[in-house]
Amino acid sequence: DHKPAARELLNRALAKYPNNAQFQYFKGRMDNPEIDSVDEQIKSTQGVADPYMRNINLAQLYLLKNDRDKALESLDQAFQALQTAKGVENSREQLGRICDQAFTLAIESAKVSQAKAQEAADRVAKGATAADKEEALKQKATSEREAAELWKQAKAYAEKAESFNLDGTGGKLYQGRMVFAQGGSSRETGLSMLEQIVAAHDDNAMAHTVLGQAYYDVGRPDKALGEFERAIQQKPDNILALRFAIALLIDKGDTMSTLRA
User: Fold this and answer.
1) Which of 19, 49, 218, 259 has a CA 20 to 30 Å removed from the CA of 40?
2) Cβ contacts of residue 54 below 8 Å, gap of 6+?
3) At what angle do helices 172-181 and 130-164 cross, to 10 degrees?
4) Short-list 186, 191, 188, CA closest to 227
5) CA-to-CA distance for 88 and 92, rounded, in angstroms?
6) Is pLDDT at 35 greater than 60 in this prediction?
7) How far apart (Å, rounded) are the C-alpha atoms in residues 211 and 15?
8) What is the CA radius of gyration of the chain?
9) Choice between 192 and 10, residue whose per-residue pLDDT is larger
10) At residue 94, what are phi and psi to the nearest 5 degrees?
11) What gap in Å lies between CA 116 and CA 121, rounded to an integer?
12) Are 188 and 217 in contact, with CB atoms under 8 Å apart?
């Protein structure tokens, strides 16, 4: 019902950012509305000549299918294509976004695999039949291998961030995120690392956003909101920080907070 307005907004966005892969992809979708299913979109996107645009859009489509392995593979290829085509200095912000998405996806996928391994271990402990135990042990081993490989991928992206200084802190921000993501007693250590990084890089919007997410995860909403607001002050188009800040303000439930949201 709002396609004309959507097209107008998209044309304005493309006029300002003509090389933005996502905007160009959306234009293709509007120009070819018969492409509806995700599989058809994937097939269409695979024909895109530019390797960066092809893979960055394939990654989003594979995520829609919950195919995290192929999404990570596509993000990696997009990173390599962009680095080759433009070099690090001319594409630092874009490379940083890809690195952040791949790093986050690898960690979240590793956590899923770890949860599956724990479920399998619980099945073994419950004393099921010999056949059930054997199947559970196989599942546990498989999930543990998957988790280890995904943590390895996350570490590789943290090393890229360090090598190319994609986070503005020489990779320290990614190191803190890695420690925090490991959970358990590592959470407090990781949180402390992130706080120290923000103290040393107060002008880094990404650092404030990451610390805000960490505070949110450990149940400290007021401190989280403060970090998100600081990030928005520094970078008003920080979508992630805006989303979190709006949600936290609405959760407060009072009129003034709702108006601020």
Assistant:
1) 19
2) 45, 46, 48
3) 160
4) 191
5) 5
6) no
7) 34
8) 21
9) 192
10) -65, -45
11) 9
12) no
DSSP state letters, the chain: --HHHHHHHHHHHHHH-TT-HHHHHHHHHHH-TT--SHHHHHHHHTT-SSHHHHHHHHHHHHHHTT-HHHHHHHHHHHHHHHHHHH-STTSHHHHHHHHHHHHHHHHHHHHHHHHHHHHHHHHHHTT--HHHHHHHHHHHHHHHHHHHHHHHHHHHHHHHHHHHTTTSSTTHHHHHHHHHHT-TTHHHHHHHHHHHHHHH-TT-HHHHHHHHHHHHHTT-HHHHHHHHHHHHHH-TT-HHHHHHHHHHHHHH-SHHHHHH-
Give pLDDT tens digits for 196-226: 999 999 999 999 999 999 999 999 999 999 9
Single-letter amino acid, residue 211: L
Taking the CA of residue 82 as centre, how many other CA atoms within 13 Å lie in the half-sphere pointing to its CB?
26
The rounded distance, in Å, linking the Cα atoms of 135 and 17 is 52
* Torsion on CA atoms 220, 109, 209, 245, rounded to nearest 10: -60
Determine the pLDDT at residue 126: 83
- Which token pair is 63? 């995520």
Q: How far is CA 143 from the centre of its chain?
A: 21
Q: Which has more pLDDT, 23 or 33?
A: 23
